[in-house]
Amino acid sequence: MHDRMPDRLVLPFRRAELVATVRLALPVVIVQIGLMAMGVVDTMVVGRLSAEALAGVALGNLYFISVCSGSWGLLLALDPLVAQAVGARDKVAVVRAVQRGLILAAVLSLPGMVMMVPGEMVLPVLGQSAAVVPTAATYARIIAPSLPAFLAFVVFRQALQAMGQMWPIVIVIVVANLLNAVLDWVLVFGRLGWPALGAPGSAWATLACRWLMALGLLVVARGELAALLRRLDPAVLELRPLLRMVRLGLPIGVQLQLELAAFGVIALLMGGLGAVTMSAHQVAITLASLTYMVPLGVSAACAVLVGHAVGRADPAEMRRFAAAGLVCGGGFMAACALTLVGLPGLLAAAFTSVPEVRLLAAALIPVAGFFQVFDGLQVVAAGILRGLGDTRVPMVVNLLGFWVVGLPVSLLLGFALDLGPIGLWWGFVAGLGAVAALLLGRVTRRLRGPIRRVLVEGPQQEP
User: Fold this and answer.
1) Is 458 a domain residue?
2) pLDDT above 70 covers what percent of the chain?
3) How far is the C-alpha of 186 from the C-alpha of 179, rounded, in Å?
4) What span, in angstroms and rounded, lies between the C-alpha atoms of 14 and 199?
5) Pick from 442, 382, 401: nearest CA to 258
6) Domain membership flag for residue 418
7) What is the mean predicted confidence (pLDDT) over 156-183?
8) Whether pLDDT at 108 is above 90
9) Which DSSP category does 145 fall into?
10) Fewer C-beta within 10 Å: the chain N or C terminus?
11) What would the DSSP string read from start to end of 227-287?
């Protein structure tokens, strides 16, 4: 006679959950790395010009991300809405969620593009070097028209991802990366009869590739997307469900904005220390961001698989998928931490040939190794909560972790204790550690309680 097993916080995952997580996460990771690879190639190409050019592209890209991150995050409301609807076999809800996402993308694009125009006025106010501002402002203006395409791509991607249709996205990302590399080579250095545009050439390449990504998905995934877009559902124009979707997605957008803003403040502080420091920061943060793409992909897979389980009203499966995701994301980042700590000089040399930049980047990269595990755990935990439709508490956690803990520690170490760029980066470790601990605590609590599908229509709203 066996005693009844007590309920546990996170049930042990079985091989089936691990395989399903990896199977979905793998193409998601390829897509994430592909998106990141465009920026990496831009950095490596422009890094061959000068420290000022590299810093200008880094700052211009940061400007774009800062402007669009709130809109991007708001559209991630599609994760729980579509995934849970797929789990519940509610095709009407899937169609309405995607069409509402496109409406929101269109509405959010115009103010975002306008905000990217006055770079010459905004960036000096933020303390950026006069040698870097013209390149950064020009870069931001050139890529501003890519925002509608970028947000439409986010909508298509989240929908296909929630439906488990990842390979069309992989195909489009691979093609876009090949085009980006060719266009960078042609436009930055002036090949095949084109004039050398320098750093702005990489912006034109990015603009072209973002439109290719959005339009390419419409072609490659036309079977899946046509079923969602063929006919406008009149219900998508109703204001109340649209506002409920905004209410669900807005905390995700604010959360993403808070996180990116905290990293952006550190980047601005780096920029205030000079072009070499900003360039070294860009090299190190690009490398850290590249490794981050893997747990970010696992996070997206968790949001989908947990959402499916919620839609099927299967709490045991939901807990097993959550456990499998945390092991995958945390384990990968632990391995990455060992690599970053052990090979900083070699990794820095792969990104830049400027001696001063390479030396400082090699000093920053090991610090990135220390926050890798925290970063992996916190992003997977956020994905689990997103799959549950839990968006408000993660927003508060990001506020506390990054702005109450991380940024003050950065300022203390970087300036009060005169540790400079290294001290600023140790604040990342403190902030991410706090966020990881708080989000894991929230996951623990939510997985113990009841589950309920998120609906934007009818009386039931997000939990």
Assistant:
1) no
2) 95
3) 10
4) 50
5) 401
6) yes
7) 92
8) yes
9) G
10) N
11) HHHSS--GGGG-HHHHHHHHHHHHHHHHHHHHHHHHHHHHHHHHHHT-HHHHHHHHHHHHH
Percent of the chain with pLDDT over 90: 41
Ramachandran area for residue 287 (φ above 0: left; ψ -120 to 50: alpha; else beta): alpha
Q: Are 363 and 424 in contact (CB under 8 A)?
A: no
> What b/e string do you get for 320-354 counting C-beta neighbours within 10 Å, with b at 16 or more?
bbbbbbbebbbebbeebbebbeebbeebbeebbeb
Please say if the pLDDT value at position 269 is more than 80.
yes
Question: Is residue 88 domain-resident?
Answer: yes
429: tokens are 């470790």
Q: How far is CA 137 from CA 40, 60, 61, 387, in A?
A: 20, 6, 10, 37
Residue 107 and residue 105: Cα distance in Å, rounded?
6
Cα 439 from Cα 300, distance rounded (Å)? 16
User: Is residue 5 assigned to a domain?
Assistant: no
CB under 8 Å to 139, separation ≥6 — which residues?
56, 57, 59, 60, 61, 63, 199, 200, 202, 203
If one compares 160 and 11, the residue with the highest pLDDT of the two is: 160
Q: Are 163 and 20 in contact (CB under 8 A)?
A: no
* Nearest in space to 207 (alpha carbons), one of 123, 281, 145: 145
The pLDDT score that the predictor gives to residue 459 is 53
Contact (CB, 8 A) for 187 and 202: yes
Supply the pTM of this predicted model: 0.82
**Count of structural domains, the chain:** 1
For residues 367 and 370, what is the distance between their CA atoms, to the nearest angstrom? 5
pLDDT at 272 over 70: yes
pLDDT digits (tens, 9 = 90+) for 36-49: 778 778 877 887 78
What confidence tier does 5 reach under pLDDT thresholds 50, 70, 90? Answer: very low
Lookup: tokens for 146: 């890519």
- CB contact at 8 A, 252 and 28: no
Comparing CA positions, the residue from 243, 259, 246 lying closest to residue 395 is: 259
Supply the range of the domain harboring residue 104: 15-448
pLDDT band at 127 (very low <50, low <70, confident <90, very high): low
